[in-house]
């Protein structure tokens, strides 16, 4: 979970979303997203889940730690 803030920032970049856009689609406050991305605050499990699900629905895939480090990528669209 320590890399989650970086993954969120990267996912927003891939999707060309602002922090406000992410707040709107995830229903997580802008303040919480700003604090999370700055590393000021660890998200609660429910906040992390809301952000992850929203970003996945928008088209990114979270890549787990697998020897190369966690990350995100654009999901394949069928």
How is this fold's topology laid out?
Elements: H1 4-15, H2 19-26, H3 30-38, H4 45-58, E1 60-63, E2 71-74
Antiparallel strand pairs: 1-2
Helix pairs in contact: 1-4
Keywords for this structure?
single chain, 78 residues, mainly alpha, two-stranded antiparallel sheet, 2 strands, globular
What would you say this structure looks like, in words?
The chain is mostly helical and 78 residues long. The protein is 55% helix and 10% strand. Strands 1-2 form a two-stranded antiparallel sheet. A hairpin with a 7-residue loop joins strand 1 and strand 2. Helix 1 runs parallel beside helix 4. The model has no long low-confidence stretch (mean pLDDT 93).
Biggest sheet strand line-up:
1-2
Topology pattern, helix = H, strand = E: HHHHEE
Low-confidence stretches: none
Cα-atom Rg, whole angstroms? Answer: 12 Å
**Count of alpha/pi helices:** 4
Overall mean confidence score, pLDDT: 93
Please give the share of residues in helix.
55-70%
Oligomer: single chain
Task: Please outline the major beta sheet.
Answer: 2 strands, antiparallel
Give a quick precis of the structure.
The protein is mainly alpha-helical and 78 residues long. It is 55% helix and 10% strand. It starts with a helix and ends with a strand.
């Amino acid at each position: 979970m320590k890399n989650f803030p970086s993954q969120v920032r990267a996912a927003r970049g891939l999707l060309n979303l602002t922090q406000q856009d992410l707040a709107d689609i995830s229903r997580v406050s802008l303040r919480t997203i700003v604090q999370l991305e700055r590393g000021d605050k660890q998200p609660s499990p429910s906040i992390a889940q809301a952000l992850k699900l929203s970003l996945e629905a928008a088209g990114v895939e979270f890549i787990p730690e697998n020897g190369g480090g966690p990350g995100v990528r654009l999901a394949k669209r069928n």
